[in-house]
Structures are given as C-alpha cells and as structure tokens.
Specification:
Number of strands: 10
Number of domains: 3
Distance between the termini: 53 Å
Strand order of the largest sheet: 1-4-7-6
CATH topology of the largest domain: Immunoglobulin-like
CATH architecture of the largest domain: Sandwich
Strand content: 25-35%
CATH class of the largest domain: Mainly Beta
Number of helices: 3
Oligomer: single chain
Structural class: alpha+beta
Largest sheet: 4 strands, antiparallel
Radius of gyration: 31 Å
Length: 224
C-alpha cells in the first residue's frame, strides 16, 4: 500500500513538473510575440511605405502566413496518418527454408513432403528434407500472393491468402525448374532471387525480394 502511495506521489510530481514547464514555455513565447510583433509591424510598414500600407495590411500578411503554415502542417499530418494507416494494413511477406524432418506432427510432415525441393539421390530424383515457405509478418492480410523467379517457377501453393499477425500465416510453396523440370540438385537454387508479390486489403501491390544463399544451411537474404 505504501509503495502504491509513493508511486502515486511520484506520478503527481512528474505531471506537475510537466505542466509547469508547459506553462513556462507558453509564457515565454507569448512574451517573445509581444516584443517582436511591433518590431515586425514597423519594419513591414517601412519596407512597403511607398505602397501606402497600413497596420491592417500587416495583420492580413501575418494571417496569410499563419494560414499557409497551418495548411502545410495539416498536409504533413495527413501524410503521416496515411502512412500509419498503411503500416497498419500492409502485409510483410517473408521467405523461409524449412526442414521437414524437424516437424513433429507426422500428418503435417507427410503433407509437406509433396512441397519438398527435389534432388538427385540413389539414381533417381527424390524429395529432399527441405521446402520453401512464405509467412506474413505484417499487420494486414496478404491477398493474391505470387512468387516469380528467373530460373524457377512455383508449381503449387498451399494457399495464396495469408492472415496477418499475431497468427502470422505460414504456408509452403513448391518450386521447379523452368519450364517444367524437377530440381536435380539443391545447389541449383544457390543465389537465386525470388520475388514475392501480394496485395493488401486496399488493393495496393507490395513486392519483396529474397536471395537463397544456401538451401542446406537454410540461409535466405532479404534484398528489398
């Protein structure tokens, strides 16, 4: 109880200091305006004296300046609000290399084998222990997800819709070599750049680029 009371007193003291500082700054700027306004008015009238300007013209000039400044600040605020809205709705697609043997759920493990990257083993082309997965780490859902590459193409997706965080939908994709060939070695994917495209709930298109450094090391590099 005593600790709570001390915290309450500390909060009151902090708020009181903030309020006093705010009032002090307000008084300071009012005094500056009171002191500088007559000087500016006199200078304005002297500069434009040949045009028969008056104090009313100076007031109109100051008013116009304040309106322009207010309009500029309003535009900045609007742009910031749009940016914050976009950050709250944009999907952020990430690329991962996953290890099938590390999945404990046997049913899930068996399903993911059909998405495995193939390689040549024992005289045949067989699924490896690795597969590519996409995950949405953004705050908004990702629609119409599509993956492009120069030398490879996605044969199938688990889904093209990814829910946002905190769930963070993750789904596998199956890649094959163009035009329609199975991958014979995991080394074929080394340094390959994959471009992930998707749309937000407002229809804006986002693009993310990743480079596969090494499949066996599950090393993926974000480019942009």
């Amino acid at each position: 109880m005593l600790d709570r009371f001390k915290r309450l007193l500390a909060e009151i003291e902090q708020n009181y200091r903030s309020f006093v500082w705010f009032v002090a700054k307000l008084i300071f700027w009012v005094l500056i305006l009171v002191w500088i306004t007559p000087i500016l008015a006199s200078a304005f009238i002297n500069i434009f004296k040949p045009n028969n300007v008056t104090i009313n013209d100076f007031i109109l000039f100051v008013t116009a300046a304040f309106i322009i400044a207010y309009t500029y600040e309003t535009q900045k605020m609007r742009a910031e609000m749009v940016k914050q809205t976009e950050l709250g709705t944009m999907p952020i697609m990430c690329l991962y290399i996953r290890y099938i043997s590390g999945i404990k759920d046997e049913e899930k493990r068996e399903k993911l084998k059909s998405y495995a990257i193939t390689n040549e083993l024992d005289g045949g082309i067989r699924p490896s222990n690795y597969y590519l997965a996409l995950r949405n780490m953004g705050k908004g859902p990702a629609f119409n997800v599509d993956v492009e590459s120069k030398n490879f193409k996605v044969e199938k997706y688990q889904t093209k819709f990814f829910a946002p965080e905190p769930k963070g939908d993750e789904h596998a994709i199956k890649v094959i070599k163009k035009p329609s060939n199975k991958i014979r070695s995991l080394e074929e994917l080394k340094n390959e750049v994959l471009i992930i495209k998707c749309k937000s709930v407002f229809g804006k298109v986002y693009e993310y680029k990743y480079k596969i450094n090494d499949v066996t090391e599950r090393s993926v590099e974000f480019i942009k």
